Amino acid sequence: MKTTIVGKRVFVSDLAEAYERVALEDECVAVELLRAGRFRHAMYQVVQGMEKRIRAASLRLGESPEAFCQRAKNHSLEEALDGLVAALTRHDLAKDQVEDMLFRHVLQGIRFDWLHNDLRYPFYLSNRRTSAVLEVTRTDVEQMLMRSHRLQVYLKDLGRLQSASG
Questions:
Q1: What angle do CA 117, 74, 89 make, to 5 degrees?
Q2: Among candidates 143, 147, 152, which has minimal Cα distance to 56?
Q3: Which residues lie across from 130 on neighbouring strands?
Q4: C-alpha to C-alpha distances, 132 to 23, 42, 125, 128, 144, nearest whole angstrom
Q5: Residue of 102, 104, 108 whose CA lies nearest to 80
Q6: Under 8 Å CB-to-CB from 91, ≥6 apart: which residues?
């Protein structure tokens, strides 16, 4: 069977910038979906944009593209956050303070590992012996967009801090 290729690969010179551009596209799509009343899909796109922004920040903080690609094989926002914290601690920032700021204040304790899959698929709750789907409201998406904005500001501030100390 012949393999069909969809699209065209466009090579990039700055991987971090490419991640940032795709993150912005994800957020734009999220806003369009929000306006159309497609809240679950809008939420998914917001989360995707957040993950890509975090990955761009890790690259900007000096993670090599090779190491980055080895670590970034799955599409977990938690894994992306772990990589960001690891990149930051190489710059002598207090790991606990960075994690506290990110998880408690910027992201407000959201469990993205659950959210990521629950937004995409119906799921089985073994403790209740039933299946469910995640229902998302306009308010949920708007609040996640606010978290995304806080994350974007925080990541820019980290970049400035890294530039000032480097």
A1: 110
A2: 152
A3: 125
A4: 29, 19, 7, 10, 22
A5: 102
A6: 61, 62, 162, 165, 166
Tokens of 89: 């601690």
Phi, psi of 125, rounded to the nearest 5 degrees: -105, 100
Rounded Cα–Cα distance for residues 154 and 107 (Å): 11
Whole-prediction pTM value? 0.84
Percent of the chain with pLDDT over 70: 89
As a whole number of Å, the end-to-end CA separation of the chain is: 53
Flag whether pLDDT at 90 surpasses 70: no
Residue 20, classed as helix, strand or coil, is helix
Contact 61, 158 (CB under 8 A): yes
